[in-house]
Amino acid sequence: MVATHIVESEAPMLDKKLDVNDQDANNLAEAETTNVDPAKKSTKITSEDIDVYYGEKQALFGINLDIPENSVTSLIGPSGCGKSTYLRCINRMNDVIDICRVSGTIKIDGNDIYDPSLDVVELRARIGMVFQKPNPFPKSIYDNIAYGPRIHGLTESKDELDELVESSLVKAGLWKEVKDRLAGPGTGLSGGQQQRLCIARAIATKPEVILMDEPCSALDPIATATIEELIDELRTNYTIVIVTHSMQQAARVSQRTAFFHLGKVIEEGETTQIFTNPQNEKTQDYITGRFG
Amino acid sequence: MLKVFSVELRGKVSEVLSLYVTGFLTYILPPVIVIGIVYFIGKWKAQRLLKNQGVAKNTGTAANALSLHSRPPYHGAFLALVSFLPAVIVFCAWSIAEGPVIKGMVNSTLPASVGELEAGKQDLISSVIGTVENGLKKLDQKELALLEQAAQYDKEVNKAAAPVEPEAIRKLFEDKNIILAENPEPYVLSAALKSRSFTQFSTYGKYTLFVLMSIAAFMIAYSSIKLRLRARNGVETIVKWFLILASIIAIVTTFGILFSVLFETINFFQIIPPSNFFFGTVWDPRFGWGATGGDGNFGQYGFLPLLWGTLYISFVALFVSVPVGLFAAIYMSEYAGSKLRSIAKPALEILAGIPTIVYGFFALVTLGPFFRDAGAVVGLEINASSVLTAGFVMGIMLIPFISSLSDDIINAVPQSLREGSLGLGSTKSETITKVVLPAALPGLVGAVMLAASRAIGETMIVVLAAGIAAKLHMNPFDALTTITVKIVNQLTGDHEFGSPETLVAFALGLSLFIITLMLNVYALYIVRKYREQYD
Amino acid sequence: MEAQEVQKNMSNDLSTHSAEVKRRMSKRLKKRQAAEKRFQFYGMAAIFTGMMFLVILFTTIISKGWPAFLQTSIQLNVNLDPEIVDPSGERNVDKLMQANYTKIARTALYAELGGKPKNRKTRKLMYKLLSRGVDVQIRDVVVADPSLIGKTVPIWLYAHGNVDALLKGAIDRNTENSSRLVKDQQLEWIDKLVASGKMAKQFNWGLFTHPASSQPETAGLGVALIGTFFMIIIVLLLAIPIGVAAALYLEEFAPKNRVTDIIEVNINNLAAVPSIVFGLLGLAVFINFMGLPRSGSIVGGLVLALMTLPTIIIATRAALRAVSPSIREGAYGVGASKMQTIFHHILPLAFPGIMTGTIIGIVQAVGETAPLLMIGMVAFVQDFPTTPMEPATALPVQIFMWATSAERGFVERTAGATMVLLAGLFVLNAAAVYLRRKYERKW
After folding, report:
1. ipTM of model
2. Which residue ranges make up each domain of chain B?
3. What is the per-residue pLDDT for B120?
4. Among A53, B167, B285, C72, who pairs with C164 as Cys (CB 3.0-4.6 Å)?
5. pTM for the full model?
């Protein structure tokens, strides 16, 4: 009973935040409509019994999670709960770490991505990733965006590439700010701009899924708001999975939420449902700020 | 086991033992004992002061004024340092100054005609004076008297026959196993005798001053030991000055190199015009300068062929080592599993620890002949000593140098850049060539410049494998020579020190020093900037 | 087959790309994967090349050098005839040193091979089986035990360098007699001696003890080892205290200002100055200005100490920096002065790092040749030096001198000396590794 009270007191606060931004309010509304008709969105990514080990230490325990297409799914949970580890399984970024071992199956559109015959390079071209700290390459803004299309050979002519760079920057909401300094260094931008540059870079390869690993944790509130708006716009074309530390952010941007704790998915479901009516006690404790 | 040693060596062993034992007993042990005694006197006085105060303490005075400021051992050390340090400093300064001062005084007694002789001849005379002076020790009273008589004889004043002919004196010394370079003139003998008496006088003065100063300093320091004496601070200040002195030595070394080499270079340019050196394209020093010095033609000292050889060989070395070293570093830091790394890394470290003379020997007996024979098979004429051999072996030597430097630099590139690139679906090699290497480029350029500086200054490999022909040609299969080879050649031959053949080595050394210094300063600067960027 | 199927499926699923782009991408992917393979291959090839050079270097040196540790000798029953050895009968050592031992050796050889040949040429061929250094060997036996005079004793004497080369296979028996260094008649004698066990290869202690010599069989590293030893001692005595003191000042006391910046840059540069330039410094300052003896190991030691100084300073500073700041704070907390903190706490903890750096510096110094050439340590030294002021050579310089000698026998000596040098450096490095392991981070 006590818990419910706290949730109730939390809810108006959330509402208040959402009121600040009409768009966000619409999100929630839209998320609710999704809830009404689940068949509308088909499942993009399915995970079955994912276990991950770092050497001897097990980091993830039997994760089962479905991620719907063209929506934002947020992964929340206390530090070290395995949410980033799971995210990195989706584009097999964990392969980079020598001692990391993954078992179980992750399927994208029904194809197992851990199939040994699958080309990880091709996979990653389909699944873009945005990292915690903005990591623009020490190249010009133009070259940063053009990097992906160039290596994959997406364009045939210079004009085509220019067009792609422009459209990516437009989609990332950065075009107006940088159109006069495309030859300038990407590292010369502000933190928020750098992160949007990284998002533009990810978009440029035309991925189906974009993974975001705490994309706003290194940014100030204004830059964060811009990125959140951007995520919401991108949702129409891309499947987005976002790891976040901030429950407010999860509530603002995502339609579905999964709560991770000690390497397990404790609860997952519609964002509104997780935040207003969590089924599991731990989830409740976490979102009410008892731990984490 | 002892049987394998020859009689000479066995004799030497006992000689060495007795020499070092007596040396220790006379020169090391007594000062150590004296210093130890002084130390204990200081410590003892401090302890006694404390004890006396301890009695007073019971009567109840302010605690602060009662205890020692520093513990007794510091008082001991303070007393020992203050007693002897000033005297030691003065003693050392005197010892350094006495040689040149006495030499100057002795030279001023030589007849004016000696001053007009050429530099080489003057050096000879002063070396004979030195030998005679050293030889005086072996003479007995009678022989000394004879010598003094000979020294006073003056050809110009008394026309009578000399009491002892210079030849006879030379013979006298030869009997004592002392070989003189020429027959000693009377003024040489007189100079040697004077030099000996000056030295004796100086030695007595030096020791007397040392003892007096030590005693005076001891008295002052002893009376200054009080309860509240800040002995520890005093000792620590002295230790700190020692530390400062030590770090100054590093600076002094650099300036020592610069000034000593510069000084001899100026001497060289007083004989050979700088244009001959810097813009000359022919290297042909005339040997036997003493004999042909009259016509003012000292041969040609063209620096350009040497510079060309140096740069060409260094280029070949970098051409071999940069790709191999860089790829090895990339593979080790980006691909290799821990097993391969645990083998390859120590192997490269061993390669780095091999002295260059070993590489030189390898070039001389193995690689040079191999290239020559291999060239003969395909119809190429390859010299055993060639740019190719020297450059190739130097390249092998530089592989571990490049790979360990590049390894550090590549590892400094943040992991997030690699992940960003891999996340976009690039392959590992694309990530490396398109993101990691461009990001690491400034550091890598610095590493290559450091390697170039090493190649330019490398000596033993080129001495054994490059040849001595100072030419200007492009043929990698033919011999060329380098700056370092010529420095070695000019200084290991039998030339007089003041001759241009020898002095040119310093001009070459200065050029080498400046070239490598500029490369190093710039390379270290960009490597440092590069590291700061990712810190 | 199935793998391809999956790949195809995946490609077809790239919904955001047009069919044209998809086709291009998958075509390109093959090329990219090939490029990746190629790139990895280059990397492996580079590592393999480096390791291969190491193997080639070592096999060359060991295969050329191992015979140097063996020396062909001939066992002869030497009659120490008092008439020749000590006609006066005084047993005076100086006189004993000067007797004609060559004659004794030759007589013994003639006896062994069936009498003194009448023909002068044959006689020469016969005594050329013996090294020119055998007189010293007999002399050593006599001087060590004068009571042997008048007796006949069996002594192993060095064979000539050419005989040695023949037994080690460096001279081919099957070449034409005229162009062969060992003649047919000599071959006959050698075979006879080998068959009777009078000629054999023995461990060559002389390689370590003999001084310089113009004949390879009597040339050794004795003087070079002593010179290197003296120089190591001088480097240790000078470079460690000065280097550690300088590092302490720079790391712990020096204010961070322009001057210390310059000192820092200066030390880093000093570490990269070509070694030959240090040799010029030694020649100009220590020999010409200060008047220290040319060729003496004191000058070599001083030059090498200056060269080692930057290495020790850099290593010591790194070791000091690695000591945890909590230890510093703990010591200050109990009221220790700065000096006490450093000497009682920090320096002992930094000790293994300092030792490792020092040994690396010593290893560099021991292998250094060029500066020693500048200060005249390339002398032909036959007297063992007793003090650092006397002329000496050093191990790497001896290698250089032998490497440039014309005689065949010196090639194996050079390689043998190189093995000795490398073994010494290996021991030093092993000591560094051992120290690092033993004292590493005990707090």
Report:
1. 0.88
2. 13-59+66-229, 307-478+523-534
3. 67
4. C72
5. 0.83
